């Protein structure tokens, strides 16, 4: 607490002021009698100047904004002081939006907090001042300006500016990180301006690594890779590489690619920018959008094989660079400028058809990890059974039967989850899954040991509705089906990974 020894009381101040005023009056009347006017005026000015009471304190005024941009010191102070509230405070403002995890506590008007740093006492006061233009100014968002006054002895000015305020900003950043609500950014077209921009909502995807049905080794590898990425800031700097990491997730629909992206975001507490390439037509728009993504974020481009018909370099599109979005333009920009003007960026491409991807994307070094999301194996099935139905009993009769069927039949985690949603009764839900597995067996989707197998009908339907967006693609598909059943190479492993060394 602030010591009261050095602070003069109100009565002392008043007495001093009264005696100074009396001295000035006496001085003035003597001057009137003995000095000519110009000399008299100058003498009065000099008297006032030399005997004016001077404060040894300095007050920094920290407004909430500089008119347009928010003031980072103000925001940091707000958060920092909320953790410093002591018993002397009489009024506080509290608030919590439905999506926030904790109650926000802020000082009320004129409340003060005494802080100490490196043995120096500092006094904070929260003030509401009338905004320029007054209360009637209908253009200002707030009728008043919010500001903090930070008062301390003048001799500590350098210490406060160079050590204390950076300390406040740093601590506030850590506090904010802990209670941060993740954001999901999607593209939004502004019709009147022919422009496209990011719009955000709170990211409330419940997927986490705990709920993700994947082979445990693969899951652990991904988590370790993410951990290593975030702690290697110095390494990236030392070797002169942009601090970014790229993942390519591939596998059939419903195997958890999008869920893995959400799990990564929840794990790292990174925002997600979902770049729907189909909505972007110009290279220049793409650049603007990429440059306005934030640090500590995941940029996701889903269904890269078919989200847009990106012509590549070989098609000779260079002459038309600004008008057309090109895959090479996208990749070069991501590797170059984009990653050099931000930190801790993750980029994820997803696809159902790795074999259809442009070789430029698969080139070594382009994506740091290729992650194969595959059909539900015994581990994935057990995790889903435990999460959805609460089954932890390994001896359960139906569980054993399903595990035997899973050895020869392909089913995606999404399909398993769908059956588990059908009933709260575990036996009924498991029986529904067995029925589906047997149907699949009868339809011949169980040829899992061969190198190739047919896509089952459910998957074709999903592909048609979700992926075949352009007429060209539909025609291509017609050719494929006319030539016989769609065949696709697939390995049986329920998750494989190819990783670059870095
Ligand atoms: N590996 C998984 N673990 C847990 N749940 C899963 C998994 N895969 C799919 N699911 C469930 O299925 C739903 C759909 O999965 P998701 O959207 O992640 O699949 P996807 O691979 O992205 O499919 P698509 O290729 O169609 O985009 C999820 O919301 C989740 O409930
Ligand atoms: Mg998906």
- Outline, from the CA principal axes? elongated
Low-confidence stretches: 1-7, 134-141, 312-323, 446-502
Could you tell me the number of beta strands? 16
Largest sheet: 8 strands, mixed
What's the end-to-end separation, in Å? 52 Å
Helices, by number, come to 16
Mean pLDDT: 77
Oligomer: single chain
Radius of gyration, in angstroms, nearest whole number: 33 Å
Roughly what percent helix?
40-55%
Beta-strand fraction estimate: 15-25%
What order do the strands of the largest sheet run in, or round the barrel if closed? 8-7-10-11-12-9-13-16
Bound molecules: adenosine-5'-triphosphate, magnesium ion
Which structural class do you get from the secondary structure elements?
alpha/beta
Can you summarize this structure?
The chain has 502 residues and is of the alpha/beta class. It is 41% helix and 19% strand. This is AAA-ATPase.
Describe the structure.
There is one protein chain. With 502 residues, the protein is of the alpha/beta class. The protein is 41% helix and 19% strand. It has helices at 10-34, 37-51, 72-82, 157-178, 216-231, 233-238, 257-268, 283-291, 327-340, 359-362, 378-389, 397-406, 413-420, 426-442, 457-467, 471-482; strands at 57-63, 92-95, 104-107, 112-117, 120-130, 144-153, 183-190, 195-202, 244-250, 271-274, 297-301, 345-351, 369-372, 452-454, 487-489, 497-499. The strands form four sheets. The protein has an eight-stranded mixed β-sheet with strand order 8-7-10-11-12-9-13-16, covered by helices on one side. Strands 1-6-5-4 form a four-stranded antiparallel β-sheet, with helices on one face. Strands 2-3 form a two-stranded antiparallel ribbon. 24% of the residues are buried. Bound molecules: adenosine-5'-triphosphate and magnesium ion (MG). Adenosine-5'-triphosphate binds next to helix 7 and helix 13.
